[in-house]
Design a protein that fits this description.
- It is a single chain.
- The protein is built from 44 helices and 35 strands.
- The protein is an alpha+beta fold.
- The protein folds into 6 domains: 61 residues, no CATH class; 143 residues, Calcium-transporting ATPase, cytoplasmic transduction domain A (Distorted Sandwich), CATH 2.70.150; 43 residues, no CATH class; 210 residues, HAD superfamily/HAD-like (Rossmann fold), CATH 3.40.50; 178 residues, no CATH class; 248 residues, no CATH class.
- The longest helix has 39 residues.
- It is elongated.
- Its cofactor is Mg(2+).
- One of its GO terms (cellular component) is plasma membrane.
- Keywords: ATP-binding, Magnesium, Membrane, Metal-binding, Nucleotide-binding, Translocase, Transmembrane, Transmembrane helix, Transport.
């Protein structure tokens, strides 16, 4: 208190500040309600967010900084400056600046903003009135009113709500991926404020809390109000990104806003992303620049020697300035002149073309109809133009679970009642048939309270209910009574269930449709409508769930006065507590559970017990005593629950399908065949994540072992990781790593050993264990073990941990990473990965705003990578190889010519040919190849995922490929120059005149060059279209048309100084000897490459060569679509709703605190989070499951 009063005495304009020891570093936050002047003295962040790279003010400087990280752009900027010096420049300055500006403009073409999020509206209490304000105008200390289904605008301290006792319900899917409702409760002192605007406007409490941080599950603070102080924790906070559910309204005080909210603290910083080809190009440009300097030095030295020995004899006839009469200075000027002339080894047109190609590839993604999701009218969108070829090199995919792999929809699929299964459909011959959308559904019209969205296909279950089969009715009665669901009846008969877990909602909805409708509840009663009749049960006790019990029970009294205990939970737990008379039924039900689990369904066992009145009364006395005990309360309650849950009678089992998005298992199988490792990073509980792993076929029972890392200390985590590594690699190899000093060297060895691992392993690690594993001491062994496993699942991870895992792989594996998610909790890893993909169409759009690519369904990732990504990489690599070859062949002719022209920096070509060669004569054919070329078509690209491998290995364009292309270009330039030179030494025209003038020589070389590079691009083109034909042959035609036009008499008459090659083309190209020289030059340039490619394809064919031959052989037949059938899992592993449940909900219901009643609030019940017990997560029994196997080319050829 003394500190608080002292702080109030300090002048606001400056002075001592208790929240900071260092200037600008916040150590403690002070917020006063309804006092903006006070809060603004701390300069807290406003509520505006920024996830895009630029805004209108920072676009130009930041974008130019990003662009000039490319050495080539800086290189051309230097050339532009050199061309402004007339003594050394032979080219105009605008020939460089115009293409450079085009490159920068095209690259910066796309820009996204956060205006949509910042412009959302909230009701803010300002000057005693509620006013509608944009989110970006909200300030720390403001009081905000939220209404049902609204997003929380900032991190708020809950003050009051429409629910009793200041309770409210929130959904945190944007934070941790979970859609089950969570409860928050206001302080009793503030909940009395209600919705009285006058009282809220007078609220002047001051909150002292921790500074902004990224811990989503922790908050520490104190409220000072009315001379009292009240402790604050995370259960009283509503974090930005949450959604208010099942609560009409609530009021909250803004504690953290904008970029200081916990959500945005987990988002990470926006990083400039460049492809590996961009980085390689930077290196190559430096090498080429060094090569250019070497050529310039050689030619400058040659000029100096020539001027000294020969040129000095002509100085008297040249009107040079006295300064230039020096051989050394002449060599110096010649050096810069040749730097400008030879700069076309890296022409600016290359970068213009690269950006055009990337823009075109982006539009191909946007225009792909097969990536359009019609149900939500959502097309795929390439939100960047710079990463397309990187899509063809991905090695690691990091995926969120909720909303990315799953629809987060639980569906009641099958059940087993008294030894009989329901849910399958059979034909007239008794054969089971597959259920499709066309399969007729059960008619529930007999039930006016049915959920019209519910679908079930086995009509025999409805018939059993209508026949009054007692056990069937008891089965659904149990589902309608044993739960913690809250009903909401918006209109008459329009029921909405608010479930803590989606599993519970699915079970209660199933009971509703089969005639046992859960209608309402109070703390003491539950009202059902059983086959249209209202029946009220007295609720006597809820035996709540926890992760040790793995079950939930209720005790009720029916209208007949009978006491019933209904229980549901994991079958392995319930079977141990059954009456011995259930042994045969238990065996039959166990077989059914195996079948259900084998299909990837989440299973649950149901049991009941008739209770004796006297026994129950005695038990209740013990329960009341244990519930008020001050010590060991949980243990005593657990023992009492265990006591009464003995000797139960088995009813059956349920099977729920956690609906995956369409095509997820097939997509994962296909991407796995492409040697892409898929890691799941989720905020969900371990069991939920594992269930999805099995459903996706990422986890299978035929795996050698599934390792679960759940240690709570660094030592425990290290021991578990070492044990896993020993099991994978064998004790002999683990001895090498016994010494911690050798761990680093062993990791690199393990990455090589990884290729020899035949067995399949999976690694599952908890968030608290991951925090230790990410420490510097353990990260090496974590990467080593994880990369040896087929599947990696990280559960209960924070958004920041997701980014740390991605960064870990980027740093240690140097592999291209892709992160995909749909919520704000995925923004951090999306920004960190080389490529970020956002799933659009969900409630939150922050993942899409921060992403590089977006679409509506996970299955479209397969097409994005295996088709668009692979094609983009293939096209870009072929384009670069050809471009370097072409320009070395074009430019080095000047180098050879320098030895014959006195090193005078004279150009061998006509000035106009130099200008038009890269812009007109050869630009369109290479663009056509870069835009449309395909080594194999899309069907074969999807059918043979192994074709993706060359991109991961960076085989199509690397330093070795670059040297090969440049050597081919050097060879071509040598032949193009010296073949005509040797021929023209003795050649004469038809009339006997000498043909060896400089202009005729230039025309012959230029024509040979254009023809050679045109034939070469024809050989490099794998997929011919009308556009390719038009551009290649059209460019040749345009060359000759422009050549004869520029050498015509007419244009010389108009511009005599600009077009000196009058009549040269006409006089040279009408000679048979010239055409013979051109033909021989072309043959000698092309044939060696043709021979090399033929021998290589015939003797050492690649997988692409084989598939291309197969495609050509089957061209007349329509290629089959890739057929990755969904693989049904065969597993004896059980799963249950309880693992997505939260402990403490039963106590909340029986206390009546979540009921809408007028009883006064007297106390606050804390809600505890369940503890994890992963040791029971995996059963020992395993069965072989069908695996996806890629067909080889040889198999199909044999067919």
């Amino acid at each position: 208190m003394a500190l608080r009063w002292l702080w109030m005495l300090v002048p606001r304009t400056g002075g001592w500040n208790p929240r900071s020891k260092k200037s600008g570093q916040e150590e403690e936050r002070h917020v006063r309600g309804n006092d903006r002047d006070y809060n603004e003295t701390f300069s807290y962040a406003d509520n505006r967010i920024k996830t895009a790279k630029y805004n209108i003010f920072t676009f130009l400087p930041i974008n130019l900084f990003e662009q000039f990280q490319r050495f080539a752009n800086a290189y051309f900027l230097v050339l532009l400056i050199l061309q402004l010096i007339p003594e050394i420049s032979s080219l105009s300055w605008f020939t460089t600046i115009v293409p450079l500006v085009m490159v920068l403009a095209i690259t910066a073409f796309r820009h996204k903003s956060d205006q949509q999020v910042n412009s959302r509206k909230s009701q803010v209490l300002i000057r005693g009135k509620l006013q509608s304000e944009k989110w970006m105008n909200v300030r720390v200390g403001d009081i905000i009113k939220l209404e049902n289904n609204q997003f929380v605008a900032a991190d708020l301290l809950l003050l009051s709500s429409s629910e009793p006792y200041g309770l409210c319900y929130i959904e945190t899917a944007e934070l941790d991926g979970e859609t089950n409702l969570k409860v928050r409760q206001a302080l009793t002192i503030t909940s009395d404020l209600g919705d009285d605007v006058a009282k809220l406007a007078d609220f002047n409490g001051e909150v002292t809390s921790e500074p902004p941080n990224n811990k989503l599950d922790k908050f520490t603070g104190t409220l000072y109000w009315k001379d009292n102080k009240y402790p604050l924790d995370n259960e009283k906070m509503l974090l930005r990104g949450c959604v208010l559910r099942n609560t009409d309204w609530c009021f909250g005080l803004v504690i953290f806003a904008g970029l200081q909210t916990k959500l945005m603290q987990n988002c990470g910083r926006t990083k400039f992303k460049r492809t590996s080809i961009d980085k390689l190009m930077n290196t190559l440009v430096l090498w080429i620049f060094g090569f250019l300097i070497c050529m310039g030095i050689i030619l400058a030295i040659g000029n100096t020697i020539w001027e000294q020995n020969v040129g000095s004899s002509f100085w008297a006839y040249l009107q040079w300035k006295e300064l230039t009469l020096s051989a050394i200075f002449s060599g110096f000027l010649t050096f810069w002149s040749y730097i400008i002339i030879l700069n076309t080894v890296v022409p600016i047109s290359l970068y213009v073309s690269v950006e055009v190609l990337r823009l075109g590839h982006s539009y191909f993604i946007n225009w792909d109809r097969r990536m359009y999701y019609s149900r939500k009218d959502t097309p795929a969108e390439a939100r960047t133009t710079t990463l397309n070829e990187e899509l063809g090199q991905v090695e690691f995919i990091f995926s969120d679970k909720t909303g990315t792999l799953t629809q987060n929809i639980m569906v009641f699929n099958k059940c087993s009642i008294n030894g009989k299964t329901y849910g399958d459909v059979y034909d007239e011959f008794g054969h089971k048939v597959d259920i499709t959308e066309k399969t007729p559904c059960v008619d529930f019209s007999f039930n006016p309270l049915m959920d019209r969205k519910f679908r079930f296909h086995d009509s025999s279950l409805v018939e059993a209910i209508k026949l009054d089969e007692s056990l069937v009715q008891e089965f659904f009665r149990l589902l309608a009574l044993c739960h913690t669901v809250m009903p909401e009846e918006r209109n008459e008969g329009e029921l909405v269930y608010q479930a803590q877990s989606p599993d519970e909602g699915a079970l209660v909805t199933a009971a509703r449709n089969f005639g046992f409708v859960f209608r309402s509840r109070t703390p003491e009663t539950i009202t059902l409508y059983e086959m249209g009749l209202a029946v009220t049960y007295q609720l006597l006790a809820i035996l709540d769930f926890n992760n040790v019990r793995k079950r939930m029970s209720v005790i009720v009294r029916n209208p007949k006065g009978q006491l019933k205990l209904y229980s549901k939970g994991a079958d392995t737990i319930l079977f141990e507590r059954l009456d011995p008379s259930n042994e045969e039924l238990m065996f039959t039900t166990s077989e059914h559970l195996n079948e259900f689990a084998g299909e990837g369904l989440r299973t649950l066992a149901l049991a009941y017990k008739d209770l004796d009145e006297d026994v129950f009364d005695e038990w209740m006395k013990k329960l009341l005593f244990a519930s008020t005990a001050l010590e060991n309360r949980e243990e005593r309650l657990g023992d009492l629950y265990e006591e009464i849950e003995q000797g139960m009678m088995l009813l059956g089992a349920t099977a729920i399908e956690d609906k995956l998005q369409e095509g997820v298992p097939e997509t994962i199988a296909c991407l796995t065949l492409a040697n892409i490792k898929i890691w799941v990073l989720t905020g969900d509980k371990l069991e939920t994540a594992m269930n999805i792993g099995y459903s996706c076929n990422m986890l299978r029972d035929d795996m050698n072992e599934v390792f679960i890392i759940s240690g709570h200390t660094m030592l425990e985590v290290q021991q578990e990781l070492r044990a896993a590594k020993e099991r994978i690699m064998g004790p002999s190899r683990e001895k090498i790593t016994a010494d911690p000093d050798t761990e680093k060297t062993d990791f690199s060895d393990s990455s090589v050993f990884e290729e020899t691992i035949i067995s399949e392993y999976a690694l599952i690690i908890n968030g608290h264990s991951l925090a230790h594993a990410l420490e510097a001491e353990l990260e090496q062994i974590l990467v080593g073990v994880a990369c040896l496993c087929k599947t990696v699942i990280c559960c209960r991870v924070t958004p920041l941990q997701k980014a740390q895992v991605v960064e870990l792989i980027k740093r240690h594996r140097r592999a291209v990473t892709l992160a995909i998610g749909d919520g704000a909790n995925d923004v951090s890893m999306i920004k960190t990965a080389h490529i970020g993909v956002g799933i659009s169409g969900q409630e939150g759009m922050q993942a899409v705003l921060a992403s590089d690519y977006s679409f509506a369904q996970f299955r479209l990732l397969q097409r994005l990578l295996l088709v668009h990504g692979r094609w983009s990489y293939h096209r870009m690599c072929n384009f670069l190889c050809y471009f370097f070859y072409k320009n070395f062949a074009f430019t080095l002719v000047h180098f050879w010519y320098g030895f014959l022209c006195g090193f005078s920096a004279q150009t061998v070509y006509d000035q106009w040919f130099i200008t038009l060669f890269n812009i007109v004569y050869t630009s369109l054919p290479v663009l056509a190849m870069g835009l449309f070329d395909q080594d194999v078509n899309e069907q074969y690209s999807l059918r043979y995922p192994s074709l993706y491998r060359p991109g991961q290995l960076n085989q199509l364009f690397n330093k070795r490929k670059f040297f090969t292309c440049t050597l081919q270009g050097v060879f071509t330039s040598f032949i193009i120059f010296f073949f005509p030179y040797g021929a023209f030494m003795t050649a004469v025209r038809d009339d006997g005149a000498v043909i060896a003038d400089q202009q005729s020589f230039a025309v012959t070389i230029a024509t040979s060059l254009v023809i050679v590079v045109s034939v070469q691009i024809g050989l490099d083109t794998n997929y011919w279209t009308a556009v390719n034909h038009f551009f290649i042959w059209g460019s040749l035609a345009v060359y000759f048309a422009i050549l004869f036009a520029l050498h015509s008499d007419g244009i010389f008459t108009i511009f005599p100084n600009q077009f000196p090659f009058i009549g040269t083309a006409r006089n040279s190209l009408n000679q048979a000897s010239v055409w013979l020289v051109i033909f021989l030059t072309t043959v000698v340039c092309i044939m060696p490459m043709v021979a090399v490619r033929f021998i290589k394809t015939d003797l050492y064919p690649t997988q692409t060569d084989k598939v291309r031959l197969l495609q050509q052989a089957s061209r007349r037949q329509r290629p089959q679509e890739p057929n990755f059938r969904r693989v049904r899992r065969t597993s004896s592993r059980r799963s249950a709703y309880a693992f997505a449940h939260q402990q403490g909900y039963g106590e909340l219901i029986t206390s009546g605190k979540n009921m809408k009643m007028r009883s006064p609030s007297t106390s606050t019940y804390p809600l505890s989070s369940p503890a994890h017990n992963p040791n029971d997560a995996i059963n020992d029994s395993r069965r072989r499951s069908q695996q996806h196997q890629e067909l080889t080319v040889e198999d199909l050829e044999a067919r």
